[in-house]
Design goal:
single chain; about 400 residues; mainly alpha; Growth Hormone, Chain: A; 16 helices; about 80% helix; globular; disordered C terminus
Length: about 400
Amino acid sequence: MASPFLPALLLAGIMAQFADRLALDTMTLAATQAGASPRLVGLLVAAQSAAWLLVSLPAGVFADRVAPRGLIRIGGVLMVVGALAGAGLLATGEPGWMLAGSAFVAAMGPVVIALSIFVLMPRAVAVAALPRANGRLELGRACFSLAAPLIAGWAVARGSGWFGLLVCALAGALVLAAATRLPGERPAVQPRLPLHRAIAEGGLFVARHPYLRPIALCAIAWNLAFFAFTALAAPYAARVLLLAPEAIGLASSVYGAGLIAGALGGATLIARLPTGLLLVFGPASSLVGATLLALAPVALGWHALALTFFLFGFGPILWFITQTSLRQAVTPQPLLGRVSATLTTAMYGMRPIGALAGGLVGEWFGLATAIWLPVALFGLSTLAILASKMPGLREMPEGVLSLRATG
């Protein structure tokens, strides 16, 4: 039976992820429309996403030690403050270093909120219901991800990119409202290790676990690829495929359609298909999408871009629901925050590195060549799963080390 605070938990998670995506779309489109170089676009993406790299690990320690409601409130405040500052900068025509700083502050909010939700979710539903609960969270995120690029494209095309960040601030306010309905109990008292040792304990658990280690390696390569692509997508679409901002925003919104399709069918597919197959399909679908876009002629540019974004949404959302439920099932309660922080760093901490790499390669070698960088990185993410024992995992485990291999 689900806890009565589950709806508030889902609302906080959905609003945080929506704001994170909307801020990213708004900044990259606004900077591109203002004539920014690929390097500057990559810098803005890197600044917005650097919070996942720098904040995740210490925040994971605190998620295991303090009441998650308090962390979610802090996250909501960071979202409001950072988004309002960024909206003011865009309104005054400042798509540069100060905008990057405001993006970093705003992005710290979704980091602490995501970690807190990971810790609270196993308290809200039974283990068997985790895929369905995580699927509902991802379905809500998918619906708003469908709207985010449309809002960003509409606002930027009218010279009002600040409006997109104003919506992000409103999402932060909704997070604060949802936090009032969450439980305030602290986790059970555990021995207080020094911060660096507490972080290391979570990392070692992931590194030694036969399920979590390949997931982390796949996540590192996939996020390098996705954010190299994110830094390149708007300049490539505008300058190689010759698409207008509204067309780019519309094609990007198909990403949300892929997320919705995957989230709607996630719980059913996880129950009926081998778990290992779903974990392979996620990165493999991204590899196919990126390759199709790199090979597409200009005449088919919009269709290829839309199909690529659909595949980026559909396959990886199944992967994300599957691996999130798996790690919640196999991780001991006292380690949930730190294990989540380790995987979050692997999944999202590569954002600034990938974004900077995409921007620099685009500037040095040209956009037509640079678009192959994410193709290569998506290939590595697929290989990380294929080279492990994960393809032989037939079903969601009930506990640690319940692997059943095929053959």
